[in-house]
């Protein structure tokens, strides 16, 4: 199976994917990385791993449709099976999402459907939630609303702040995203209509992983 990654920043999730492929935990090929930011470090991570790295700078296009048309052309040329969003900081239009329906996945730093959008860690702290985490989901035209596949969960501790939660969620993401990519590469996950399936069975709720170390608060 052929995966492409869209990234806008540092690319730490991309690095976790690269490591997982190299270690044989994902039986698939990372065929290329596209970034809309020319100096995104994710591009360097791709080059260091021998993966095609391409800049499609949204600022160089007349409008969003033209920008996405260029990405669509590249992805079709690469004969991509699955497109993975890894810190890609552009909202994709319905035209793009529908073109690749069932082939687009994302990871979001909350336990969806809670806290769609930005600033999830601060919002969790403001609400006083006991648990926080991340969700791998299919992408639809409605922001952060596609069918969820799996979640990883941690406990919010009294001493946590935005930076500590961000660091902990990165640990969860770097474990969860490659795991689910491995499931997809093995043909275990599919989207039919708006319903996610795992091993041929509908996922009525996402698979949940409780991170043992991060489920305990250090006193």
Automatic annotation (TrEMBL):
Residues noted as binding (6R)-10-formyltetrahydrofolate in the record, renumbered to the chain: 64, 106
GO annotation, cellular component aspect: cytosol
GO biological process, any: 'de novo' IMP biosynthetic process
Pfam families for the chain: Formyl_trans_N
Active-site residue list: 108
Positions of the record's site feature: Raises pKa of active site His: 144
Keywords carried by this UniProt record: Purine biosynthesis, Transferase
GO MF term (any one): phosphoribosylglycinamide formyltransferase activity
HAMAP family referenced in this protein's UniProt entry, alphabetically: PurN (MF_01930)
Family of the protein in this entry: Belongs to the GART family.
Physiological role: Catalyzes the transfer of a formyl group from 10-formyltetrahydrofolate to 5-phospho-ribosyl-glycinamide (GAR), producing 5-phospho-ribosyl-N-formylglycinamide (FGAR) and tetrahydrofolate.
The name this protein goes by in its record: Phosphoribosylglycinamide formyltransferase
């Amino acid at each position: 199976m052929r995966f492409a990654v869209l990234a806008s920043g540092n690319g730490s999730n991309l690095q976790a994917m690269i490591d997982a492929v190299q270690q044989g935990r994902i039986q698939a090929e990372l065929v290329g990385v596209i970034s809309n930011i020319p100096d995104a470090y994710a591009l360097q991570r791709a080059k260091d791993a021998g993966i095609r790295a391409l800049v499609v700078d949204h600022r160089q296009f007349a409008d969003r449709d033209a920008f996405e048309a260029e990405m669509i052309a590249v992805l079709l040329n690469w004969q991509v099976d699955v497109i993975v969003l890894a810190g890609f900081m552009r909202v994709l239009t319905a035209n793009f999402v529908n073109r690749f329906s069932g082939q687009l996945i994302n990871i979001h730093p909350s336990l969806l459907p809670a806290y769609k959008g930005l600033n999830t860690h601060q919002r969790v702290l403001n609400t006083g939630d006991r648990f926080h985490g991340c969700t791998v989901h299919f992408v639809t035209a409605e922001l952060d609303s596609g069918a969820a596949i799996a979640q990883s969960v941690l406990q919010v501790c009294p001493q946590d702040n935005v930076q500590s939660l961000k660091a902990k969620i990165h640990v969860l993401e770097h474990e969860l995203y490659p795991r689910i990519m491995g499931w997809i590469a093995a043909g275990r996950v599919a989207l039919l209509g708006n319903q996610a399936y795992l091993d041929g069975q509908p996922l009525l709720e996402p698979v949940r992983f409780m991170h043992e170390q991060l489920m305990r608060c250090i006193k």
